[in-house]
């Protein structure tokens, strides 16, 4: 079992580079299902989730090759429209194959995803949206059997909540549908804008990506393209907190500061100096952060995937902070691990009260999910003595080499 061992107390300094965003890449890989040919994604980090989505695509018949952060996917004329349970269990995002497989082949057989580390995570909005476009679903022995009579039809869909995955599934379905699909209350995340950009490069007609109303005009055919992936704002934000929590001076290169609007504002409110360049962010951390309240919300609100890292920072603030989690019902599960390092936190339903302590003290902890795993490493950078983070496979799902990147900034950190 691999672990990350962090010796706390070093101030981080220097620059670190960010690569393509996991949550854009996973859906942009699925877009390769829409048409035969050779598709390429540029600046793809070597992370476990990309490997897993590669396995899903390989099962369907797409050949994936990785070379120096270029991912090449070759889609054949005939595909096998299914995603079995063993793959969906490992890669929950595989549910977005539903839309493009239905658009391309008129049927799909996809295991119904269960809950995961973050909670129940239903997919009702994906299904009702696709139903409005003419698909029918039957749940048979844990498999969702989907069919459409003829071609998917454009429809007017209003999402109950701006779900990232449902918006993407409907966009991926709508590009080859007959007529126009309107998605109301669509998610506005930068990764959705990037997926729309890739689809438009492929020949799709999409308007309004990045706003709450997206219109997709179905086209007859698409072409395979090479797409440059948007930078990973969560990896960038994780490095920003690494600089902040160590009272360091860290520059994050190759990011889009505007994609971290709210997160950087909250860091500033915590006393962190933030300098925004055109594709860089520099953070200079205070000796001790100020307390800050925030609530997670869909973009452009504070991202839930930055919540655990920010809570790690606030755990050593000079007062009490209140954090409200609005996206996931089990996202505070990591708090017990942070308390093993000495954090003083009370969780009631979707709220956490974080009473800042003067010092954290290194201890063995376990990473419960990707972002909480990263947050525990960040807390370890501040804690006195040694922190050992176990279950690092969670962290590997979303960070190419967190240990090497933090070591390059001067952290005392290694993998064992
Ligand atoms: N929801 C429903 N019904 C649906 C769909 C979603 O109730 O049909 C609920 C979910 O249970 C959740 C909320 O709506 O409470 C938001 O879920 P959303 O669909 O927006 O999230 P997702 O597409 O499943 C993506 C990212 C997550 C990120 C969220 C929110 C990928 C692969 N995953 O998930 O990233 O937290 O958007 O921004 O894109 C991570 O990278 O660590 C991660 C968990």
Beta-strand content bin: 25-35%
CATH homologous superfamily identity of the largest domain: Enolpyruvate transferase domain
Strand order of the largest sheet: 22-23-1-24
> How much is the radius of gyration in Å?
21 Å
| CATH class descriptor name of the largest domain | Alpha Beta
User: Per CATH, which architecture of the largest domain?
Assistant: Alpha-beta prism
Uncertain runs: none
Q: Which molecules are bound in this entry?
A: uridine-diphosphate-2(N-acetylglucosaminyl) butyric acid
Largest sheet, in brief, is: 4 strands, mixed
Structural class, by secondary structure, is alpha/beta
Shape from CA axes? elongated
CATH topology of the largest domain: UDP-n-acetylglucosamine1-carboxyvinyl-transferase, Chain
Count of helical stretches: 14
Average the pLDDT over all residues and give the rounded result: 97
How many structural domains does the protein architecture include?
2
Through-space gap between termini:
8 Å
How many beta-strand runs? 24
What is the percent of helical residues?
A: 25-40%
Q: What does this protein structure show overall?
A:
There is one protein chain. The protein is of the alpha/beta class. The chain has 2 domains: 4-18 and 231-415, UDP-n-acetylglucosamine1-carboxyvinyl-transferase, Chain (Alpha-beta prism); 22-228, Enolpyruvate transferase domain (UDP-n-acetylglucosamine1-carboxyvinyl-transferase, Chain), CATH 3.65.10. It is 31% helix and 26% strand. It has 14 helices and 24 strands. The chain has helices at residues 22-30, 48-60, 85-90, 98-105, 124-132, 164-174, 190-201, 233-245, 261-269, 307-314, 335-340, 370-382, 393-396, 402-408; strands at residues 4-7, 13-17, 37-42, 63-67, 70-75, 82-83, 107-111, 135-140, 143-148, 156-158, 180-184, 205-207, 213-217, 226-228, 249-253, 273-276, 280-284, 294-295, 320-324, 344-348, 351-355, 364-366, 386-390, 412-415. The chain has a 4-stranded mixed beta sheet. Strands 2-15-17-16 form a 4-stranded mixed beta sheet. Strands 4-5-3-14 form a 4-stranded mixed beta sheet, with helices on one face. The longest helix is centred in the first third of the chain and has 13 residues, at 48-60. It is elongated, with a radius of gyration of 21 Å. The model has no long low-confidence stretch (mean pLDDT 97). Uridine-diphosphate-2(N-acetylglucosaminyl) butyric acid (EPU) binds next to helix 1, helix 5, helix 6 and helix 12.
């Amino acid at each position: 079992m691999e672990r990350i061992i962090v010796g706390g107390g070093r101030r981080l300094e220097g620059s670190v580079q960010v690569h393509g965003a996991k949550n854009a890449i996973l859906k942009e890989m699925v877009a390769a299902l829409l048409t035969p040919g050779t598709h390429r994604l540029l600046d793809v980090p070597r992370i476990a989730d990309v490997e897993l989505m590669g396995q899903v695509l390989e099962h369907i018949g797409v050949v994936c090759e990785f070379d120096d952060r270029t991912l090449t996917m070759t889609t054949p004329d005939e595909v096998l429209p299914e995603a079995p349970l063993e793959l969906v269990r490992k890669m929950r995002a595989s549910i977005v194959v539903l839309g493009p497989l239905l658009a391309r082949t008129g049927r799909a057989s996809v295991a119904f995803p269960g809950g995961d580390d973050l909670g129940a995570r239903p997919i009702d909005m994906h299904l009702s949206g696709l139903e409005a476009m003419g698909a029918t679903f039957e749940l048979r022995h844990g498999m969702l059997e989907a069919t459409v009579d003829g071609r998917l039809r454009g429809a007017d869909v209003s999402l109950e909540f701006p779900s990232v995955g449902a918006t993407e599934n409907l966009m991926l379905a709508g590009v080859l549908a007959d007529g126009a699909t309107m998605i109301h209350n669509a998610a506005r995340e930068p990764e959705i804008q990037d997926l729309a950009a890739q689809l438009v490069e492929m020949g799709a007609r999409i308007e309004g990506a990045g706003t709450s109303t997206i219109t997709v005009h179905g086209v007859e055919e698409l072409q395979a393209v090479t797409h440059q992936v948007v930078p990973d704002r969560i990896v960038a934000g994780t490095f920003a907190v690494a600089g902040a929590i160590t009272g360091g001076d860290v520059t994050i290169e190759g990011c889009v500061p505007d994609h971290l609007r709210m997160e950087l504002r909250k860091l500033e409110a915590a006393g962190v100096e933030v300098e925004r360049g055109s594709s860089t962010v520099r953070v200079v951390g205070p000796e001790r952060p100020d307390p800050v309240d925030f609530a997670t919300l869909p973009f452009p609100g504070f991202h839930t995937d930055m919540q655990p890292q920010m809570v790690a920072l606030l755990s050593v603030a000079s007062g009490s902070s209140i954090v409200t989690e609005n996206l996931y019902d089990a996202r505070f599960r990591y708090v017990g691990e942070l308390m093993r390092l000495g954090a003083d936190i009370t969780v009631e339903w979707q709220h956490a009260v974080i009473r800042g302590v003067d010092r954290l003290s290194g201890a063995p902890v376990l990473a419960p999910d990707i972002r909480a795993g990263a947050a525990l490493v960040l807390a370890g950078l501040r804690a006195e003595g040694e922190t050992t983070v176990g279950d690092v496979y969670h962290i590997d799902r979303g960070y190419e080499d967190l240990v090497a990147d933090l070591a390059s900034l001067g952290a005392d950190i290694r993998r064992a």
